[in-house]
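re: that chain from earlier
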Amino acid sequence: MESLKFNQKKDNNDTEKESFNINNSILEYSMNRFPFSVNSFPRNYIVSTINNIEDYSALVVKSDFIIIDKNIERLYPLALDIQAYVFRISALENEKNLDTVLRLINKLIDNNISKGSNVIAIGGGIIQDISAAACALFRRGQPFTYLPTTTLGQLDSCVGAKCALNTDKAKNIIGLFSAPKKVIIPLFMISSMPVNEHRAGLSEMLRLCLTASNHALYKYINLLDDVLDSKTINLESYENALRLSLSIKKSVVEFDEYEKDVRRSMNYGHTFGHAIEKLVAFQMPHGLAVLLGIHMSNTFAYYNKIMNETCYLEISEAIEKTLKGINGDFNYLNKLKAENIIEQFKFDKKGDGVSVPLIMIEKPGKMVFYKFNFGSNSQILAKAIQLAIENFVKWTIETK
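^ sequence. v structure.
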């Protein structure tokens, strides 16, 4: 694919407001500086950052109850004399269920946790899902502070208050809204992210930028070289990436927190992505499944003349750049069958029993909600899915 020429000039006027269109609603965003507030119900919450292990240790030692990813504790050990009860979880999809939530609630009861207690959840999206669900149910709303430790958690899921659990039948089918009282992003932890998990987070950032505008897409591309490798990441550029990604997410969430209309745009790539995750038994990181889902959605939009060729190729190149140097063999994706992916749409929580909305874009900053009816002719969709898989696998090989 011929390389596109992106404007490499630094954008110093990053606080200027920019408008974008979601399903004929006009939203605005500007790059907020930390700390910033997110308007939410029943209370607003502050998003801030910490930069070093000393600030992290000082924060944790003041807690009464800690929910933590076992791997994060291994990388950043808690003090031996910490007074808080520590509830440790393996951050695996098979832990993200009601059984784990009930175990956590029982430990909150055993430790006499009240609404005045300082509860802290430390980890990525799986820890957030489990903690937020338990805290929403316990005492009809236990306040908690969330420290997102993964790229995906920091760039996307920490804002928005969504949490979801899996069953044996479907991913994220049990869900509710449960906002933390505070989000504190430990920037320094990003250097410990594995390559593929880091790219999974960047993939969700790309999704948000595509939601917003061409300008946001170009900002993403301009930042990418500095933030692509978690081991050599430029933290100043990464903080700018956080500001860009979370500012877009904040604008959507504040406009439609409970997903009545425009927030459904955040599911761009997810209907496909969740189906892929289920069919490959979750061996693919969520964000990368969404990235493949975005390419499937774009290919379907291109085949339906919703997206033009120039836009399709430009976004495809951004996807390919995001996969540069990725680890692992993704040839197992070639075994996926389009009809099985389409069949999984019936389990999507956004479906109404007869159809599911497929979120597509005409161009960055202009989204389209396409109603796909179950049982309708799906030949074009199946063709788009198969081509997208072929492209994605090819890009993971070519970019090594």
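Residues 202-232+256-398 form a domain with the Dehydroquinate synthase-like, alpha domain fold (CATH 1.20.1090.10).
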